[in-house]
From TrEMBL:
Organism from which the protein derives: Fulvitalea axinellae
Protein name: GTP cyclohydrolase 1
Pathway: Cofactor biosynthesis; 7,8-dihydroneopterin triphosphate biosynthesis; 7,8-dihydroneopterin triphosphate from GTP: step 1/1
Keyword Hydrolase: yes
Keywords: GTP-binding, Hydrolase, Metal-binding, Nucleotide-binding, One-carbon metabolism, Zinc
Biological processes per GO annotation: one-carbon metabolic process; tetrahydrobiopterin biosynthetic process; tetrahydrofolate biosynthetic process
Assigned protein family: Belongs to the GTP cyclohydrolase I family.
Enzyme class name: hydrolase
Record HAMAP family: FolE
Length: 225
């Protein structure tokens, strides 16, 4: 495949792979070494763009970018950074739908390395297990903090929750703006993208409708805490 074909795949945001494509040696080097190396490479990029790295304002940028990539934006690449999601026995035998909505999504498009910002809305029907509510937010945060494709983010969150909660009955909606669509290319400032993945009882459209109605009801509230 030549560079033009590869560019088209990225520009059309085609999901090619369900799993984040990682090299076999992805985590052989410690983070500190990765930061040093990325810093060096980013210096080259800036120099190539014609920037003067002796300028006070620019001289620290390669280090800042490298640290930001490794420690913040892409921390979710590391399996050892996945939040521990301990599931508890569902003692109250709650067997109705539970919704966690407006979970912030701060991600990065893997095709352009530009931000994807939006919200995730998640519902599940407990079987024998429940998890702490904040754990759902943390899982979304974790899978968001890696170079992503929105469809894959949706699927990775779904599959992790299905496993953690020991039930197929989970639904995940992600609505997000892609800066690669709003700031370059078509430069559409208003459009956003919605993706959905689900399993178990949510294969039944009446259950999905129930979830969507609850989201609407939630939106009608104005919480101020
Ligand atoms: Zn993109």
């Amino acid at each position: 495949m030549d560079d033009v074909q590869k560019e088209l795949i990225g520009d059309n945001h085609v999901l090619v792979n369900k799993d984040t494509p990682l090299r076999a040696d992805a985590f052989d080097k410690p983070d500190e070494v990765k930061v040093k190396n990325i810093q060096r490479h980013f210096e080259r990029i800036m120099e190539e763009l014609g920037l003067d790295l002796t300028d006070d304002s620019l001289s620290g940028t390669p280090y800042r970018v490298a640290k930001m990539y490794v420690k913040e934006l892409f921390y979710g690449l590391r399996p050892d950074r996945r939040p521990k999601v301990s599931a508890f026995e569902n003692k109250y035998a709650y067997d109705k739908i539970l919704v966690e909505q407006d979970i912030v999504v701060d991600s990065v498009c893997e095709h352009h390395f530009l931000p994807i910002v939006g919200y995730a809305h998640i519902g599940y029907i407990p079987s024998g297990k429940v998890v702490g509510l904040s754990k759902i937010n943390r899982l979304v945060d974790y899978y968001s903090h890696r170079p992503q494709v929105q469809e894959r983010l949706c699927l990775q969150v779904l599959e992790d929750l299905q496993e953690s909660l020991e039930t197929e009955s989970v639904i995940v909606i992600v609505s997000a703006k892609h800066l690669c669509v709003s700031s370059r290319g078509i430069k559409d400032k208003s459009s956003f993208t919605t993706t959905m993945e689900y399993g178990g009882v949510f294969n039944d459209s009446t259950k999905r409708d129930q979830f969507l109605k609850l989201l609407e009801a939630g939106r009608a509230q104005s919480f101020s805490v």
